[in-house]
Design goal:
Rossmann fold, 13 strands, transferase, MeTrfase_EgtD-like, methyltransferase activity, L-histidine N(Alpha)-methyltransferase
């Protein structure tokens, strides 16, 4: 596409969503960015995934937060005299609320800064959380993680306890996770704390089943991104011509999801772009990296943190790891 065309095309073509989709589907190994899973339908499907029997990570981390928040807040208090709590990608805060309630009961004087890219999420939290946690001081920050971390530093001089839960770190490859943790460390002060949720390596079948649930919700979740491209970018994906193929490699801990083109086919996007698929050609959709405990420690040290504590669910399938900057 030349510069003149860029100036005359309709507005969907100026969106980063459009640019990212075209870039990903034009690459030799086609891919789509998993951050685009979460439109309104994707949010709803992800809620369903979190409730479904085969998907264990949410229940595991809920087990940790609902049963060990007292222990967690004691450790926080031991390592940091006074702090604010920042949550990266707060969502509906159903897990962190247990910790917030506990800190409230221990009469800790803190402000909770949930950071989320969705302004709806922030508005909702600011309305609902003070009802569920009476007396809570909350200041939502709507924007990118690192920008909002800097803003929170300006808003209050206190040390920060940063929550990065939900195994969201798994959506990075190990290299990307290292880069992310280094950048995060650079945005923190010595003495700040970071609590990260890691999904741990375990029986490979258990992991594979979590991304290949029997109800087909994860399949629908992946195919929804094609539907979203149809809806928002005027494309004509026939989703019946794609299979969902998750795979887990226990030797690397990488759980990857692909869509497979069942036939040779062409897809049109925004009227003028044509993407060709060969039979069995893949679209790489998402990574959900699994960690050993040694690997979490290694990541901490390699990014300038010191591991200080770990909290596990009953089955030891998941770990919330506390690191000190
Ligand atoms: C939100 C990134 C933690 O990787 O387990 C769930 C997303 N994808 N099922 C994960 C997801 C398919 C989830 N995270």
């Amino acid at each position: 596409m030349n510069a003149t065309e860029l100036l005359t095309v309709p507005c969907t073509k100026h969106s980063t969503f459009y640019a990212d989709v075209i870039k990903g589907l034009s690459a030799p190994q086609k891919y789509l960015d998993s951050k685009y899973f979460y439109d309104a339908t994707g949010d709803r499907l992800f809620q369903e995934i979190m409730r479904c029997e085969d998907y264990y990570p949410t229940r595991c981390e809920m087990d940790i937060l609902s049963n060990q928040s007292a222990a967690i807040s004691n450790v926080l208090g031991r390592h940091c005299r006074s702090f604010d709590v920042i949550e990266l990608g707060a969502g509906d805060a159903t897990k962190s609320i247990h910790l917030l309630q506990q800190l409230q009961q221990q009469h800790r004087d803190y402000t909770y800064y949930p950071i989320d890219i969705s302004s709806n999420v922030i508005d909702l939290l600011e309305h609902t959380l003070p009802v569920e946690v009476p007396g809570l001081s909350i200041q939502g920050l709507n924007g990118e993680y690192m920008d909002m971390l800097l803003l929170a530093k300006d808003l209050s001089p206190k040390n920060k306890v940063v929550l990065f839960m939900g195994a969201n770190i798994g959506n990075f490859t190990p290299d990307e996770a290292l880069q992310f943790c280094r950048t995060l460390r650079a945005h923190l002060q010595p003495g700040d704390l970071l609590l990260t949720g890691f999904d741990l390596k375990k029986h490979p079948q258990v992991i594979l089943n979590a991304y290949n649930d029997r109800q087909g919700i994860t399949r629908a979740f992946n195919l929804n991104l094609l539907h979203r491209i149809n809806r928002e970018l005027g494309a004509d994906f026939n989703t019946q011509q794609f299979d969902h193929y998750p795979m887990y490699d226990p030797s690397t801990g990488a759980c990857k999801s692909y869509l497979v083109s069942k036939t040779t086919q062409q897809v049109h996007i925004a009227e003028d772009v044509v993407i060709g698929f060969r039979e069995n050609e893949l679209i790489y959709m998402e990574i959900s990296q699994k960690y050993s405990l040694e690997e979490t420690d290694h990541l901490a040290f390699a990014s300038g943190f010191t591991p200080v504590a770990r909290f596990f669910d009953r089955k030891k399938w998941f770990a919330d790891c506390l690191w000190k900057a």
